[in-house]
Design a protein that fits this description.
Layout (H helix, E strand, L loop, with lengths): L1 H4 L4 E7 L6 E5 L3 E9 L4 E8 L9 E5 L29 E6 L4 E8 L6 E9 L6 E2 L6 E5 L5 E8 L4 E9 L9 E5 L22 E3 L5 E7 L4 E8 L6 E9 L14 E6 L6 E7 L4 E8 L8 E6 L13 E2 L4 E7 L4 E9 L14 E8 L9 E2 L5 E5 L5 E8 L4 E8 L8 E6 L5 E6 L3 E7 L4 E9 L7 E9 L7 E2 L6 E5 L5 E8 L5 E7 L6 E6 L5 E2 L1 E2 L5 E5 L5 E9 L7 E9 L6 E2 L6 E5 L6 E7 L4 E8 L6 E6 L5 E5 L2 E5 L4 E9 L6 E9 L7 E2 L5 E6 L6 E7 L4 E8 L6 E6 L5 E5 L1 E5 L4 E9 L7 E8 L8 E2 L5 E6 L6 E7 L4 E11 L3 E6 L5 E5 L3 E5 L4 E9 L6 E9 L13 E6 L5 E3 L3 E9 L4 E9 L8 E8 L4 E5 L7 E12 L4 E5 ...
Parallel strand pairs: 1-3, 9-11, 26-28, 35-37, 45-47, 54-56, 63-65, 73-80
Antiparallel strand pairs: 2-8, 3-7, 4-6, 4-8, 5-7, 10-17, 11-16, 12-15, 12-17, 13-14, 13-16, 18-25, 19-24, 20-23, 20-25, 21-24, 22-23, 27-34, 28-33, 29-32, 29-34, 30-31, 30-33, 36-44, 37-43, 38-42, 38-44, 39-40, 39-43, 41-42, 46-53, 47-52, 48-51, 48-53, 49-50, 49-52, 55-62, 56-61, 57-60, 57-62, ...
Length: 1054
């Protein structure tokens, strides 16, 4: 019937119509245009028609006829169309429908004008089950344009049954306002596919049709039902024009053969807008995976982001993502939910990660993958030795692996290679389950320690920590602390030497300690090139001990568990160059040294071969211990470390250390060098300040003369004092370049004073300790005199009488004289001190009865108005300390002058001759004496005896001046020879008081005597004969004591 109806119509055009090519036609009234379509059985087409005539009365009829000239019915729309909605199949067209061709043949699309007006139209069709014009390559976007009304484009994508396909469409460039390109995805049988949804999504699944109204893009995921092309039909529902990009990617397998290898970075390029790149990554269920993406060009607009699909094609949900640095680095973390090949899709996410981007930027990118629970194939195994490595390029990494048992401990060190580059090595350490365990960055050298929380293989990933794009070198070390890398054994007191041959090198030693047997380990840098570091670990690999502060490198270990301990020596320099070192271990309980006696010096030498020595000191609780050292090598000071009976370090000093002993037991002193790379000899001594031994008694009113020597650097004296006594101690140095000190300790061992001149009130009665020692850590050698007096309670003082004077001889350097007198309150005491002989220059101190110093001076006179009646004390010493001679002291009351009654004879002493001299006739001889008087010497007489001093018949000189202290005797040439000659000097004062002094036996030789020998004589500062060298080769030595007595004659030679 329909065929008959066409007879009333004139035939218009009759042409073949090509897929995807729109034709424009004009059809007059009662005219039919015929368009032929050649089809295969099973083909499906989508026909779309639109009147382009402005005449609204032009409403042509469009029909489709099969090869047998039967009218066909369009496939029912798959969409649910509600009132006031438009069927997506017909949207944008006056007529549209999908037709299924069951048989081979030529089909017709007829445009029939039933009206009375001529009109124009546009007609187009596309195949739904096979390629039309354009094909899509997996992951490669095609850019197209809708340039005219009703234009319809189709793209085919070759798929296999079960392929999960992501079709993506986006508006690009400049388009008409409201341009809203849409796409429909059909199977290879021409059926509109359903979108693949999640397991909990509503059913039936939505159809695979979408426009680009939202965000300017649309993404549809479909599953191919059969092998063959999947067709994507594109048009603008509003018949507007604009540009678009279309792509299709397979989600359950990569588009090509690209594979992400664990631990390696890939670089590639997104070459066209909306293109994607895909990779496969084989995983096992439960694998933790870390992926990273970055843009190659830091100035690029591309933002490479990932879509990750599991082996079934399900999109893997990722957590919150962030962008880092100029290369827009994004880190991804996931755990494989199933075993198999995962598809990693790379696309543009610019400008952000929130889905608002156009996804149209292009450029180079980098991608990397890490599976840390199973070591990557390119991971290098770590052993005891350090390794050198490098990181290259964007997202570059270098991987290492190390096996560990549960609770194994490790020291990890990472050293940056080129210190001038921007490369900053960064390490991530993963446990055997793939959990991030530790991280570290190395601006130069970094170090960390960790304990294996799980047994298995640990993965270490080194990358660039600057911006993940820099290249550079590094050194890395992972050292177990359980002794597995042992290189030697330490024993007490024996130095082990080694050398670091490369950066991050280390040497590992073992030491077996008895339970509770504390010890200390010291490390020495032999050249100054190292920053030495030493660590100690117990038998379980746990760090133990306390680092020693100060100038040395070491660790003190107290109360260790018994067993094998590990000692690790390293160079902690930030720019290590290597070099030799030494390491020494000493026990601080049961020391491997010697036991020293209290008060007795011990000597030793610090050297490279023996940098430390240990000493045992047995002491009791409550004792006040003092340990002193003195060094004898320039540039060297001995460092002393004191350890208590538990082996705990309690004190350290270079010169002296003192402390109250809390616990009875054996204390250990370790002596070494205070400064690195120094050495030399030293002396060490210890004393209990409250119970000293080996002391010499220092009597009040007396003095002691002694020396400090290399073998005796510490002298100890005891001095008695009553409560309230003022202890006056004066140290006089008798040697040049000699700087000792004295210290005063009370009976409890508390130090009261430390100087060379002490005035200290005694708090309690008892025995006080005085220590003479060097004043610094440097040893001192030389002689000294130490004097002690109590001004408020003076010992053996000489009494001064008002109006009288007293002559006092100062025969020994450092002599301290004491005088007392009784004074009346309000009177002014006037004390005059006059030098009489020698180099002595008196210095006086005046004290009241309480020991208060009233006045002191060396001007020859001191005055003081006395506060009260009582006994006053005067202490006199040489101003320089070392002068000897004589002086006279007198007392006068300026308020109530005392009468002078001269009943005291002059004092006179003979300086030469003193005995033993030989005086030859015809020569001159100098007779010398010292004389003094409380008022004044009036005259001197010199006489000669030849009978041993029984008579003095011959006057040598008479009436010499009272000020004369010598006489040149011109010996007569004919003087009678005698071996019993004696010379006498008599001093007489104005009151007729006289005193004489005579020499010992001398010899005189007169004329007629021809000597058969000659002699040369030597004298001391007091003009005493000390040596005679005879012409026959004999030498006679004369020895005198401090009081001036001849105590010995020694003859040597023939």
């Amino acid at each position: 019937m329909l065929a008959l109806s066409h007879a009333a119509f004139a035939q218009g055009v009759s042409v073949s119509l090509a897929c995807g090519t729109a034709v424009d036609g004009t059809v007059g009234p009662m005219v039919t245009d015929f368009y032929n379509v050649s089809a295969q059985a099973g083909d499906s087409i989508w026909v779309r028609f639109l009147s382009t005539s402005g005449n609204r009365t032009f409403v042509p009829q469009v029909t489709v006829w099969d090869a047998t000239n039967h009218l066909m019915t369009a496939r029912p729309t798959p969409f649910t169309v509600t009132p006031n909605t438009i069927d997506p199949i017909t949207v944008g067209a006056a007529f549209a429908g999908v037709f299924d061709f069951k048989n081979l043949g030529t089909y017709q699309i007829r445009v029939q004008n039933l009206g009375s007006e001529q009109g124009t139209y546009r007609l187009v069709y596309v195949w739904l089950n096979k390629p039309c014009l354009d094909s899509l390559l997996c992951g490669t976007a095609a850019v197209g344009q809708i340039t005219s009304t009703l234009q319809t484009r189709s793209y085919s994508f070759q798929a296999k049954a079960g392929d999960l396909i992501s079709a993506r469409l986006a508006r690009i460039g400049t388009a008409d306002k409201n341009f809203d390109v849409a796409m429909f995805v059909f199977s290879s049988s021409g059926q509109l596919l359903n979108i693949v949804t999640g397991p909990n999504a509503a059913t039936p699944a939505p159809l695979a049709a979408a426009d680009t109204v939202t965000n300017g893009r649309a993404v549809l995921t479909v599953r191919a039902t059969t092998d063959g092309p999947v067709t994507i039909v594109i048009f603008d529902p509003a018949d507007l024009t604009g540009s678009y990009a279309i792509s299709a990617s397979r989600l359950n397998g990569p588009c090509g053969t690209s594979v992400l290898n664990c631990g390696s970075a890939n670089q590639s390029k997104i070459g066209s807008p909306f293109s994607t790149e895909s990779y496969s990554l084989d995983l096992v269920s439960g694998d933790p995976v870390f992926l990273r993406t970055a843009v190659v060009d830091a100035g690029s607009s591309l933002l490479p982001v990932l879509e990750i699909y599991d082996p079934q094609g399900n999109l893997v949900t990722l957590g919150s993502l962030s962008i880092f640095g100029p290369h827009k680095i994004i880190n991804y973390a996931l755990t494989a939910s199933a075993s198999g090949s995962y598809t990693i899709l790379v696309r543009d996410g610019s400008p952000s990660l929130n889905g608002s981007g156009a996804f149209t930027n292009t450029g180079g990118y980098a991608i990397s993958a890490l599976r840390p629970n199973r070591p990557c194939k390119n991971a290098q195994g770590l052993a005891c030795d350090p390794v050198d490595g490098s990181v290259s390029g964007l997202l570059g990494t270098t991987l290492y692996t190390a096996n560990a048992k549960l609770n194994d401990r490790f020291i990890f060190r990472l050293l940056r290679g080129d210190q001038s580059s921007s490369f900053r090595p960064h390490v991530d350490i993963y446990d055997p389950q793939g959990n991030l365990f530790q991280t570290a960055d190395a601006a130069d050298l970094t170090r960390l320690g960790f304990t294996a929380s799980l047994a298995g293989a640990y993965t270490l990933v080194v990358s660039d920590g600057f911006d993940s794009s820099q290249s550079g070198t590094f050194s890395l070390s992972l050292l177990p602390t359980n002794g597995a890398c042992n290189t030697g054994t330490l024993s007490c007191g024996t130095v082990s030497t080694g050398s670091f041959s490369r950066p991050l090198a280390s040497l590992v030693y073992t030491y077996t300690a008895a339970p509770g047997e504390s010890f200390t380990v010291r490390m020495m840098d032999n050249t100054g090139a190292l920053t030495p570091a030493v660590e100690v670990y117990d038998p379980r690999g746990n760090p133990i001990g306390q680092n020693i502060s100060g100038n040395l490198t070491g660790v003190d270990v107290t109360n260790p568990a018994g067993g094998s301990h590990t000692v690790i020596a390293t160079d902690a320099a930030k720019h290590p160059t290597g070099g030799p070192f030494g390491i020494d271990l000493l026990r601080t309980i049961n020391a491997c040294g010697v036991t020293t006696a209290q008060g007795q010096p011990a000597s030793g030498v610090v050297s490279g071969a023996k940098p430390y020595s240990s000493y045992t000191i047995p002491v009791s609780g409550g004792d006040a211990l003092s340990v002193r050292s003195a060094s004898f090598t320039p540039g060297f000071s001995a460092q002393m470390d004191l350890y208590d009976p538990s082996g705990t370090r309690v004190d350290s000093a270079t010169f002296g250390l003192s402390r109250k002993i809390a616990v009875t037991g054996n204390y250990t002193v370790i002596v070494g060098a205070a400064a690195a790379r120094t050495g030399g000899s030293y002396s060490l001594a210890w004393q209990l300040l409250n119970h000293p031994v080996g002391t010499s008694t220092l009597a009040c009113g007396g003095s002691a003369t002694a020396s400090l020597t290399a073998s005796s650097e510490f002298r100890y004296y005891s001095a008695s004092a009553g409560a309230g006594d003022l202890m006056r101690l004066i140290l006089t140095r008798l040697s040049d370049n000699f700087a000792p000190q004295i210290e005063l300790f009370d009976p409890t061992g508390t130090r009261l004073a430390q100087t060379s001149d002490i005035s200290q009130k005694a708090g309690a009665g008892g025995s006080y300790l005085i220590v003479v020692s060097p004043s610094t850590s440097n040893g001192e050698t030389g002689s000294y005199a130490l004097a002690y007096q109590r001004p408020n309670n003076p010992c053996s003082p000489a009494a001064l009488t008002c109006g009288q004077s007293t002559l006092r001889q100062a025969n020994a350097p450092g002599q301290l004289d004491a005088f007392t007198f009784t004074g009346t309150g309000g009177d002014q005491a006037d004390l005059k001190l006059t030098q009489r002989s020698g180099s002595y220059s008196p210095f006086a101190e005046l004290y009241d009865s309480s020991g208060k110093l009233l006045v002191a001076g060396s001007g020859g006179q001191i005055k003081s108005i006395l506060a009260a009646k009582g006994t006053y004390a005067l202490l006199v010493r040489d101003r320089a300390g070392i002068g000897t001679g004589s002086y006279r002291v007198s007392l006068q009351d300026d308020t109530n002058a005392c009468t002078v009654n001269d009943t005291e004879g002059p004092a006179v002493s003979l300086l030469a001759p003193t005995g033993g001299e030989v005086i030859a006739g015809g020569a001159s001889y100098s007779i010398q004496w010292l004389s003094d008087d409380n008022v004044g010497v009036a005259s001197h007489d010199v006489a000669l005896s030849t009978d041993g001093g029984q008579t003095f018949p011959a006057a040598i000189a008479s009436g010499l001046s009272g000020n004369a202290q010598g006489y040149i005797w011109n010996v007569p040439a004919d003087i009678a020879p005698s071996r019993k000659a004696v010379i006498r000097v008599t001093a007489t004062d104005g009151a007729g008081n006289a005193n004489s002094v005579a020499s010992g036996l001398i010899s005189t030789i007169g004329s007629g005597y021809t000597p058969n020998s000659s002699a040369t004589y030597g004298y001391d500062a007091l003009n005493r004969l000390t040596q005679a060298v005879l012409g026959d080769g004999r030498t006679i030595q004369y020895a005198w004591d401090a009081a001036g007595n001849l105590v010995g004659i020694t003859v040597a030679g023939q």
